[in-house]
Amino acid sequence: MKPYILISNDDGYQAPGIRYLIETLKPLARLIVVAPDGPRSGYACKITTKEPFTLQPISEEDGVNVYACSGSPVDCVKLAFNILLPRLGIRPQLVVSGINHGDNSSVNSFYSGTMGVVTEGTFQGVASIGFSLCDMSAHADFSACGKYIESIVRKVLAEGLPPFTCLNVNFPRTDGKYGCSMDCNPATEAHPETGKAAAKDYKGIRVCRMARSTWVKEVVECNRPGSGSPYYWLTGEVKELEPEATDTDRWALYHGYVAVTPQTLDTTAYGLLKDWKI
Amino acid sequence: MKPYILISNDDGYQAPGIRYLIETLKPLARLIVVAPDGPRSGYACKITTKEPFTLQPISEEDGVNVYACSGSPVDCVKLAFNILLPRLGIRPQLVVSGINHGDNSSVNSFYSGTMGVVTEGTFQGVASIGFSLCDMSAHADFSACGKYIESIVRKVLAEGLPPFTCLNVNFPRTDGKYGCSMDCNPATEAHPETGKAAAKDYKGIRVCRMARSTWVKEVVECNRPGSGSPYYWLTGEVKELEPEATDTDRWALYHGYVAVTPQTLDTTAYGLLKDWKI
Q1: Surface of B (26-45) touching A: CB under 8 A
Q2: Residue range A83-111: average pLDDT?
Q3: Among B251, B248, B228, B236, which Cα is nearest to B181's?
Q4: pLDDT by residue (tens digit) across A220-268?
Q5: Which end of chain A has fewer surrounding CB within 10 Å, N or C?
Q6: To 5 degrees, how large is the angle CA B253–CA B233–CA A263?
């Protein structure tokens, strides 16, 4: 029998990225989809504690059951593991999140609802992988991602991952513009040129560490017409803190490689732990 | 001149925990408070990308300026560093978050808005510390925390922290009930016996690693009266995955010690990075 995979994301169950992921994984596994009922970009590991949330069956096509949850990406995974999957008698072998519309390399991983799903899947004791494409457009071209997703998922299905570790996989854009997209800037969501570009193949896979970078120019002040009272929008651009390094996820993305970053959920700073005395 | 410290939290600017923190730090530094305008527990590193947010000056007392932000804990820090602090000509030497009403040890750190503030402060290049007390009650007794906060903050003001690292400090309860509280269960927010208990001193400080634990029984299904359609509340209890370990934050909390866990924001799993080939 084929294994079960739980699929979720942060762009919502209707996003093209999760649709592409479902089609890609159908031949490999039996799929259960529990995803947010709308966009939840930038939700990180948010959990819903002050109000309840709901779960809605959406569709069952080709044996793939899709459910929409009104909570956060992490809520989706908790609801799946605590209620839905036990009722169905299913223990998935893998949790897969994405494909995110926008990159989650470097520090973006911390803000990412896509990686929130992966973090929670790992806490539930199941090997978990997040996939993200460096293109926030609704018309992003995912077609070059499929064969890499298949080979990475097959390997993790066969070998598993150590406890408290997961994979963060980022794909460059396929139109030759390999730069990292702005993950939180509503003004840049549409790349009109993307979707028209032919999908080139990537140069290969790099297993790489997380680059150190920081966001700058992150907040823009606006004034409410007529009142003069200010309000604020998040925006920004990435400043690379180690642009010379060639062993990072950012180097891979800028150079046309698929970036696979193994991540740990034991965030103890062991070096500092040894040295810090009080 | 005294250094500047930026203070925030996830319980909102009116919470007793942040009030206690302000009073504790007043003798050590000049303080700027930018905190959420209401509770944001469980917000993790959420950023607000789909709508704008606001900043409201609340009060200026004893030279402490307090601002309330309608966004997430991380939004507060981004707004402070990008707009407010540059306008005031201030570069803080430290970001301090808390005191959270509820513990952020072990995996709770991932869901925590308190630690979201700390993560963002670290990304802004400033040494950052989160303080949390194992008691979710609004009447939690913080009085034993002060002298430890003072010594930890003094040390970090003097020595700094390495880049991409921060401190996660958790205090046990002071009424002898050293167990870890449920961080996401609205039903357990009130501990009627707390606040009446005399504040005992802690046994000391342990610099310790993050324990591995997991949440179980995390979701409860309820039915809307009259409709029968279900909705879900997060709840749960912690299952310790290494109850025998004596070098963890959880051991410290269960045994009456202040737990100081140095955390890294480079979450690359370096062991797996070395071994994982594709």
Answers
A1: 39, 41-45
A2: 97
A3: B236
A4: 999 988 887 899 999 999 999 999 999 999 999 999 999 999 999 999 9
A5: N
A6: 55
d(C-alpha A30, C-alpha A10), whole Å = 21
Averaged in consecutive runs of 10 residues, what is the pLDDT profile of chain B (278 residues)? 96 97 97 98 97 96 94 98 97 97 96 98 98 90 96 98 98 72 36 51 96 96 88 95 96 95 98 94
Q: pLDDT digit string (tens) for A33-87?
A: 999 999 999 999 999 999 999 999 999 988 899 999 999 999 999 999 999 999 9
Is the ipTM here above 0.95? no
Give the per-residue SS3 of B125-186: CCEEEEEEECCCCCCCCCCCCHHHHHHHHHHHHHHCCCCCEEEEEEECCCCCCCCCCCCCCH
pLDDT for B94: 98
For chain A, positions 145-174, list CB contacts with chain B under 8 A. Answer: 151-152, 155, 161-165
Instruction: Identify the residue among A49, A126, A260 best suited for mutation to test binding to B, counting B beta carbons within 10 A and taking the highest.
Output: A49
Alpha-carbon distance B230 to B209, whole Å?
Answer: 40
End-to-end CA distance of chain B: 56
Helix (H) or strand (E) run with residue A73 in it: helix A73-79
Q: Count of CB atoms within 10 A of residue A87's CB? A: 9
Which amino acid is located at B243 in the chain? Answer: P
Letter for the amino acid at B172? P
For residue A20, give the H/E element and its range: helix A16-25
Question: Nearest Cβ partner of B234 from A47, A107, A184?
Answer: A47
Residues of B in contact with A164 (CB under 8 A): 212
**Could you tell me the pTM of the whole model?**
0.93
- Nearest-CA residue of chain A relative to B233? A52
**Minimum-distance CB partner of A52 among B54, B215, B232:** B232
Sign (positive/negative) of CA torsion B139, B144, B148, B153? Answer: positive
The answer to whether the CB of A194 falls within 8 A of the CB of A137 is: yes
Residue with tokens 């306008």: B87
Give the Cα separation of A168 and A181 in Å (integer): 16
Which residues does A248 contact at the CB level (< 8 Å), separation at least 6? A106, A208, A209, A210, A211, A242
CB-CB: which of B83, B155, B218 is closest to A78? B218
